[in-house]
Structure formats: structure tokens, C-alpha cells
Amino acid sequence: QVQLVESGGGLVQAGGSLRLSCAASGRTVSMYVMGWFRQAPGKEREFVAVINWSGSSTLYANSVKGRFTISRDNAKNTVYLQMNSLKPEDTAVYYCAGGSYYSVEREAFGSWGQGTQVTVSS
After folding, report:
1. Average pLDDT score, the chain
2. What phi and psi values does residue 106 have, to the nearest 5 degrees?
3. What is the DSSP letter of 37?
4. In sequence order, which residues have a C-beta less than 8 Å from that of residue 70 and are 6 or more positions away?
5. How many CB atoms lie within 10 A of CB 119?
6. Number of C-alpha atoms within 13 angstroms, CB side, residue 5?
7. 38, 48 in Cβ contact below 8 A?
8. What's the CA gap between 114 and 109, in Å, rounded?
9. What is the pLDDT of residues 31-46, one digit of tens each?
10. Beta partners for 96?
């Protein structure tokens, strides 16, 4: 399995931006479909974005469409989530995930990072 480590979270004011990174080790990230999920306190973990192996195809949750951008640099074994126009409701722990299928379902992803906290103040 691939090991995933997220970074880049923090505290930001509403309207601000953050860029999350997910560094992979153990196996090359190009072998995996990569996704970002998030979990707010008291809520289930939810899909945010997914990118296919080559980076040619992406999907987003309606709640982040037009504000977030997922990308990958297979040469650097890293996946990114650029988050713009952040809102207080974006506050959550953000998780990077790797899987074998291009899917928005949590169950399709077998490798997970430990998560990084994103807090958006109003």
C-alpha cells in the first residue's frame, strides 16, 4: 500500500485560500486514483474531489465546485487541493486517499492519510 501524509492545513479567514498537499511514499502515486475527503465534527466523512491516474479527469462535490481544484504531480509523488473562497462550512479535517477505482465513494479508497485540520473563521 501507499503511505500518505497531508500538510498545509491551518486557520484562515473566510474568503481566504489554502493549498493542501498529500505526499505519497511506499508506492508511486501514479498507480492510484487520488481523492480528498473531509470530516467535520459530528458528521460523516464526505467526498470533496477526485482525480484520475493521469490527471486528465476530475470530479468535485457540488459544495466545492468552482472554488477547489485538485491536481497531481506524479513526478513528485504528490497530490494537491487548492482551496479558494473558503467558507466557515469548509471547516473540517481533510483526508487524502488513494484507490484503484475512479469513484466518489469512500469504500473505493484503501489508503488514507492521517488528516490535516482546516479551520475557516467568519
Report:
1. 95
2. -55, -40
3. E
4. 34, 35, 36, 48, 49, 50, 51, 58, 60, 79, 80, 81, 82
5. 15
6. 5
7. yes
8. 14
9. 899 999 999 999 999 9
10. 36
